[in-house]
């Protein structure tokens, strides 16, 4: 277990810290930022869909809720708080405020997750999917009608606070937190719900509690990802949070492997980089993109990694075995 | 299966590698970002077509500053983050000297800060929200803003049609619609007209009978529906069904052949304000329409005309700047005066918005017919 955690940490740190150098191509830098944000989304959705086995397709809604909430705090309260904290160095004060706003955005999202989760998690399979889908749309339509956050105009003027360090930091936190949960007694309970809900209930596991817990934690990180997204683009628009966004996140985890943290990061990587790599094709881009996805799913129906994790330990062991043979 | 997949992946990668070095060297690159796929695909395609045609014409005449121009068009699927990626790619990778970007105001507001930060001129053909050009001094637009369009229609209805009462049906989910409605109302009431009913709908609704019944009861002489063509078609059909016979009117969102197809006879006698009319007798317009029809087989809509003008404006600015240095291009573009475009004579004001005229189009005999030009 420790080895796996170490591997994950090293993987993420290498991916991001290696590119922290200032002379990085801004285009690559931006793709990496989106990759980090997508990783947080995928890993958090994997907790709900992959580990708990609940089919949620409303993740864009949580992302929107958290993103808009923290963006609104930044726009309407950011200056005021900055003035209050003027005794601190400006960067430090700004960073502290951003951290608080992000967490508040995440908490807002988590509370929504709780409110939505308690009634809907009693539903199973398709019904839950439809309920979460409906929730995601409700959030989007609510935002469209909220004038304080711009409604259909979009919400411009958000300060640019997100950089690659922030994204790395949060991706790291998300992975560690979810990894630790999965490998704790709570995690065992959560996985048992996925395997057989009736059986785990008869073993004395409070399934509703664990489902709602997983749902809220997933929503929390989706909210954080939304906040990072908002403070990177400096503008939010409801068209970023349509049903298609939820499907995209779902695709990442299905493609990478349901129930695998490294798998969801891998899936996030592919789905962030692939559309950019295909830009050279112009009109054929989306066709090739979809074809690639179809073929990947045909060849590897359980996802690229399945429910395993990539770890250096395993790679070493594999190489050694090959070497001996 | 596996072998097939491998073959597929290898071919994708090799095609990708082949495509990369094909981009010609020694040309002046201009970037364009439009929603060529997704819900606004027809808008994006029109814009891309217009801009491409303009650049081709310039290249046929030998390009600008002695070199050819290469137009790099990127698709953003009407997604803000895709547009941001496209902008970064065009600016950092392809080193474009200027950008023609986006159709909608909301996505332009994502791209504009990136262009401003990199000090690259961004000229939007169609983003009408006043906030867009407020982003910075490198951001320009080729179209008039929403305020103007609402006022133009109010003027036309009150003065030319001499109709004294009007109803407004707004799409609450669209800022564009709200903006037009607001400025129409302001101007119309200031002129002495009376708004007898104000109703609203959401984009994508299919039944408008409740709102239309209320409007009918208020007996207006004119109904202003500043929405997009997809909703306006059903609205017109249902209004005629309910027996509302007065003329309807709207903004440039009506400009699509789809409206004439869906609404058919119901659209007869309606008016909308637009950036240009293909029927105009002016030579620039006539040549543009003729060439466009020859190239793409359809009559160009206003978006194509605006994108065409945007590309020509940029080329003109590069020519006058005598260099591809972005600050010089910016200064030259800002100094544009009396540029004869397809969508009117364009002069930029201090806020980098064009001062230009609008046209009123009447739908008559299943066709868009030029009715009047309204000067600012």
Keywords:
heterodimer; A: 325 residues; mainly alpha; two-stranded antiparallel ribbon; 2 strands; globular; B: 376 residues; alpha/beta; Rossmann fold; 7-stranded mixed β-sheet; 5-stranded parallel β-sheet; 12 helices
Describe the structure.
The complex is a heterodimer of chains A (325) and B (376). Chain A contains 13 helices and two strands; from the N terminus they run H-H-H-H-H-E-H-H-H-H-E-H-H-H-H. With 325 residues, chain A is mostly helical. The longest helix of chain A is centred in the first third of the chain and has 31 residues, at 90-120. Chain A has helices at 2-17, 26-51, 59-84, 90-120, 125-144, 164-182, 185-195, 197-202, 207-233, 243-256, 261-277, 285-299, 312-324; strands at residues 155-156, 235-236. A two-stranded antiparallel ribbon of chain A has the order 1-2. In chain A, helix 2 packs parallel to helix 6 (164-182) and helix 7 (185-195) packs across helix 9 (207-233). Chain B folds into two domains: 27-144 and 283-357, Response regulator (Rossmann fold, 3-Layer(aba) Sandwich); 147-274, 3-Layer(aba) Sandwich (Rossmann fold). Chain B has helices at 2-19, 41-60, 80-93, 105-118, 146-160, 175-191, 209-218, 229-241, 257-263, 283-296, 302-321, 326-334; strands spanning 28-34, 69-75, 98-101, 121-124, 139-141, 165-171, 194-201, 222-224, 248-250, 271-274, 339-341, 344-348, 354-355, 358-364, 367-374. In chain B, the strands form three sheets. Chain B has a seven-stranded mixed β-sheet with strand order 7-6-8-9-10-14-15, sandwiched between helices. A five-stranded parallel β-sheet of chain B has the order 2-1-3-4-5, sandwiched between helices. The longest helix of chain B is centred in the N-terminal third of the chain and has 20 residues, at 41-60. Chain B is globular and about 65 Å long. Chain B starts with a helix and ends with a strand.
């Amino acid at each position: 277990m420790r080895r796996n955690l170490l591997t994950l940490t090293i993987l993420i740190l290498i991916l991001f810290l290696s590119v922290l150098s200032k002379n990085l191509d801004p285009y690559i830098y931006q793709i990496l930022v989106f990759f980090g944000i997508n990783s947080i989304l995928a890993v958090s959705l994997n907790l709900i869909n992959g580990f708990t086995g609940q089919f949620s397709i409303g993740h864009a809604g949580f992302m929107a809720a958290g993103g808009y909430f923290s963006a609104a705090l930044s726009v309407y309260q950011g200056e005021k708080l900055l003035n209050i904290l003027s005794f601190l160095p400006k960067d430090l004060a700004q960073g502290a405020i951003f951290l608080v706003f992000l967490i508040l955005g995440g908490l807002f999202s988590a509370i929504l997750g709780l409110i939505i989760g308690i009634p809907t998690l009693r539903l199973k399979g398709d019904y839950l999917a439809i309920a979460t889908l409906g929730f995601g749309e409700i959030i989007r339509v609510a935002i469209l009608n909220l004038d304080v956050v711009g409604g259909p105009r979009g919400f411009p003027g958000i300060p640019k606070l997100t950089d690659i360090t922030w994204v790395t930091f949060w991706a790291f936190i998300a992975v560690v937190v979810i990894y630790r949960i999965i490998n704790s007694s709570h995690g065992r309970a959560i996985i048992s719900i996925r395997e057989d809900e009736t059986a785990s209930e008869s073993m004395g596991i409070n399934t509703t509690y664990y489902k709602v817990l997983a749902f809220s934690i997933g929503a929390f990180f989706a909210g954080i990802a939304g906040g990072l997204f908002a403070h990177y683009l400096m503008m939010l628009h409801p068209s970023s949070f349509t049903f298609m966004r939820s499907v995209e996140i779902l695709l990442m985890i299905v493609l990478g492997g349901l129930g695998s943290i490294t798998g969801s990061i891998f899936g996030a990587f592919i789905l962030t980089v692939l559309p950019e790599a295909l830009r050279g094709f112009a009109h054929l881009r989306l066709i090739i993109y979809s074809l690639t996805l179809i073929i990947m799913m045909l060849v590897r129906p359980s996802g690229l990694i399945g429910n395993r994790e990539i770890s250096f330990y395993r790679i070493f062991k594999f190489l050694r075995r090959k070497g001996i043979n | 299966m596996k072998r097939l997949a491998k073959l597929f992946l290898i071919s994708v990668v090799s095609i990708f590698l082949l495509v990369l070095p094909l981009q010609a060297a020694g040309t002046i690159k201009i970037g364009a970002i439009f929603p060529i796929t997704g819900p606004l695909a027809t808008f994006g395609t029109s814009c891309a077509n217009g801009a491409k045609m303009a650049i081709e014409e310039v290249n046929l005449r030998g390009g600008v500053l002695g070199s050819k121009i290469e137009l790099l068009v990127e698709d953003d699927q009407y997604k803000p983050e895709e547009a941001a990626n496209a902008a970064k790619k065009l600016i950092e990778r392809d080193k474009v000297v200027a950008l023609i970007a986006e159709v909608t105001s909301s996505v332009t507001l994502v791209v504009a800060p990136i262009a401003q930060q990199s000090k690259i001129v961004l000229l939007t053909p169609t983003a009408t929200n006043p906030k867009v050009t407020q982003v910075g001094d490198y951001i320009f637009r080729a179209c008039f803003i929403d305020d103007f369009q609402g006022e133009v229609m109010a003027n036309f209805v009150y003065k030319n049609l001499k109709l004294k009462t009007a109803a407004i049906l707004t799409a609450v989910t669209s800022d564009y619609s709200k903006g037009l409605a607001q400025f129409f109302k302001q101007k119309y009431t200031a002129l002495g007209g009376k708004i007898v009913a104000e109703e609203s709908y959401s984009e994508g609704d299919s039944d408008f009978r409740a709102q239309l019944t209320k409007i009918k009861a208020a007996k207006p002489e004119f109904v202003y529906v500043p929405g997009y063509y997809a909703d306006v078609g059903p609205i017109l059909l249902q209004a005629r069904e309910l027996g509302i016979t007065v003329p309807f009117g709207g903004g440039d969102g009506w400009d699509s052949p789809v409206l004439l197809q869906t609404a058919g006879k119901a659209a007869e006698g309606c008016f909308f304000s637009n950036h240009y009319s293909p029927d105009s007798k002016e030579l620039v317009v006539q040549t543009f329409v003729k060439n466009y029809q020859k190239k793409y087989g359809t009559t160009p809509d206003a978006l194509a005309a605006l994108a065409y003008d945007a590309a020509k404006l940029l080329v003109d600015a590069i020519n006058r700047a005598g260099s591809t240095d972005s600050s010089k291009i910016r200064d030259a573009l800002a100094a544009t005066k009396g540029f004869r475009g397809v969508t009117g004579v364009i002069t930029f004001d201090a806020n980098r918005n064009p001062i230009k005229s609008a046209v009123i189009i009447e739908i008559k005999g299943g066709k868009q017919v030029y009715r009047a030009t309204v000067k600012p």
